[in-house]
Design a protein that fits this description.
By secondary structure, this protein is of the alpha+beta class. It is built from 5 helices and 14 strands. The strands form 3 sheets. The chain has a 7-stranded mixed β-barrel, surrounded by 4 helices. A 4-stranded antiparallel beta sheet has the order 1-2-4-3, with helices on one face. The longest helix has 17 residues, at 27-43.
Amino acid sequence: MTVYPEPRLLPCGDRALSVELGDEISREVNARVLALEYLVQQEALPGVVETVPSFRALLVYYNPLVIGPEELGVTLRALAAQARPDVLPPARTVELPCCYGGELGFELEPAAARLGLRAEEIVRLHASALYSVDFVGFTPGLPYLSGMPERLFVPRLETPRVKTPPGSVSIGGMQCCIYSVESPGGFWVLGQTPVRLYDPSAPDPILLRAGDHVRFRAIDRTEFDAIAAAVAAGGYRPRIEAAAR
């Protein structure tokens, strides 16, 4: 089973409910999760203070002095029945430049050896895909992306590294992710984007949102350095397109 016929509501302390919509990582389940979040936001439910989507569930924080879990649960079940992908607004497509290989993509060659592919083929496959942001988490602004070509599915590192540079474009399992800040990590680093995914000084600190689409554009080191300088000076904005219905 992938999609539950009825949502499962689980209490998370006395201020949140987890609405589980399926038992597997899939685009179908995640699209329903994002649709449910959108419907909750559109309803502006009294007492709901925050929503946090994941692969297969939506965590709904609420103020128990305004609404109780039973009343909230009834509303969430009704909205879950309406949570279909076609209720979502058009997705944005964000283009991210990425410099593959070399010192920035220091695990491209080992990943190629593990997968039995040439490094150039990994770059071609990786940069040709259209990815979907399933959710943002682990560290501020870090997106988990689905849509990676199956030929690039690879087990995560057996021993995670202690530090991963921010902007590292990486793969692990069936997923792609981009490290938003320096952090430990177990995904294979193929390259790096000079674009900041998390900027606490910006009006909107988080670049990518759950439901966005992402494309990678392969660049060389010269262009990477030029974009990085423009980003540091506050003069660069990634290309973002809103899809028409």
